[in-house]
Specification:
Number of strands: 12
Strand content: 15-25%
Radius of gyration: 33 Å
Structural class: alpha+beta
Helix content: 55-70%
Order of helices and strands: HHHEHEEHEEEEEHEEEHEHHHHH
CATH superfamily of the largest domain: Multidrug efflux transporter AcrB transmembrane domain
Strand order of the largest sheet: 2-3-1-12
Distance between the termini: 52 Å
Number of domains: 3
CATH architecture of the largest domain: Up-down Bundle
Length: 433
């Protein structure tokens, strides 16, 4: 085998670069584990009354946005019927999150019991500020909101500005005389004082999250909070690792029995390991939460990859026994094998896309969980057909096919020499007669 030619191929170089990048990302960023692997909490939120699909989508979208703003990475928000929402949080205490989740987000600013601002007037929320035990949440309001505030505040210098969040007074600063002149200003601030700096930070973060995410269209209540143990996930990981090793062993034995040479067993196993590394590296780069369904998708993708490699190998070796030894003949058979592989991959991806779309966009219970299976399967299939399969074909072309070509040429020359020798012997015999 011409190893230098193999290592200089752009497909091989691309695979090596991606493998190095995957190892680096996994080492630095790690892999985020889902609720069923590292444990967490499930919060059941009940809506005040049944709602239609559009309103439910708004509720789940607002809650999901709040969780992301609040800093919760691994969170799943999905509808459960038409009057309940399930919020799954991995590795995070639900105490603070439950307060944010269950807050409708109705914000009002009143001066002498006159409404000066509402939540819909807010256009931008700036990062909160902490000074000792005092907190500040600056935000910007629309021009119309600023005009309305200026009209209500005119002549109300040093009057209390009562700020309510869900009808609860959260701050009551005095009105600056400069804002009581009737001049509109789009810069507003919510502030308050707590007992400790930690409480001040939590309060500021909660208010900023609610103001930034918007109001819920319906009143909600937290009906239950339950914890999920990571013990099952740990046992599953151990079992999956053992099952993976056994699967590699069984595959190696089957391939060796079929082809009778380790020269084909080793690259197929290495290709499968490369696909596993690239899938995990992709999950690490995009901060995808790997859960049980995702692991099942990885196993399905790798199993499909082994099938594809067997198709390629069978097509090439079968063709080599039947047809000419020219390299163009092998290239034609490679194209035929890839036609089958691309067709199978297209069918699989087409079957997975609806499941992934419904899980991501709708967040239905059960289907939302299986979206992880669809996502990892699609990623694994794409990595296989565009990255690892071409490298495997290049390996066969240089190691197996080149060897078959030289062997076939040698056999052809030997056959021709034998025929010439026999023809010469017959000529000599005729001369003797």
């Amino acid at each position: 085998m011409n190893f230098k030619e193999f290592i200089k191929d752009w497909r091989v170089i691309l695979l090596i670069v991606l493998l190095v990048g995957s190892f680096a990302s996994i080492s630095i960023n790690g892999i985020d584990q889902g609720l069923d692997l590292k444990g967490g909490s499930i919060i059941l939120i009940g809506l005040e009354h049944p709602v239609d699909a559009e309103t439910m989508n708004t509720v789940t979208a607002v809650l999901d946005r709040r969780m992301n703003i609040f800093g919760v990475k691994d969170v799943k928000v999905r509808a459960s019927g038409d009057q309940a929402v399930l919020v799954e949080i991995a590795g995070v205490s639900p105490d603070q999150v439950a307060e944010v989740v269950g807050t409708p987000g109705k914000f009002e600013v009143k001066i002498n019991n006159q409404t000066a601002l509402v939540g819909s007037d807010i256009t931008k929320v700036s990062p909160y500020q902490i000074t000792g035990t005092q907190w500040h949440v600056p935000f910007t309001i629309s021009t119309e909101g600023a005009k309305k505030f200026a009209e209500v505040a005119r002549g109300q210098a040093n009057a209390p500005v009562d700020m309510y969040l869900d009808d609860q007074l959260i701050s009551s600063p005095t009105l600056d005389p400069g804002l009581a002149t009737g001049t509109a200003s789009t810069d507003v601030e919510v502030s308050g004082t707590e007992k400790t700096p930690e409480e001040a930070q939590n309060q500021a973060k909660t208010i900023q999250t609610v103001l930034q995410s918007g109001a819920l269209p319906v009143k909600v209540n937290i009906e239950g909070v339950s914890s999920v143990s990571a013990e099952l996930g740990s046992q599953f990981l151990d079992g999956a690792f053992l099952a993976g090793l056994l699967a590699l062993l069984v595959i190696s034995i089957i391939i060796f029995i079929r082809y009778r040479t380790p020269i084909l067993v080793i690259p197929i196993i290495l290709t499968s390991l490369a696909e596993l590394t690239l899938i995990l590296g992709t999950a690490s780069v995009i901060n995808w939460n790997m859960d049980l369904a995702g692991i099942a998708g990885i196993l399905a993708a790798i199993g499909t990859g082994v099938d594809d490699q067997i198709i390629i190998t069978d097509e090439l070796l079968r063709g080599d026994k039947k047809t000419t030894s020219r390299r163009t003949g092998f290239q034609a058979r490679i194209k035929g094998a890839f036609f089958v592989i691309f067709a199978a991959a297209g069918t699989l991806i087409a079957a997975m896309l609806p499941l992934a779309y419904v899980g991501f966009s709708r967040g239905y219970s059960g289907i939302g969980t299986l979206s992880g299976f669809a996502f990892t399967t699609i990623i694994g299939v794409l990595i296989g057909i565009f990255i690892t399969r071409p490298v495997y074909v290049k390996f066969l072309e240089l190691l197996v096919i080149d060897k078959k070509i030289s062997t076939a040429s040698t056999k052809k020359k030997t056959t021709q020499s034998t025929r010439k020798g026999k023809k010469g012997s017959r000529t000599k015999k005729r001369k003797r007669k």
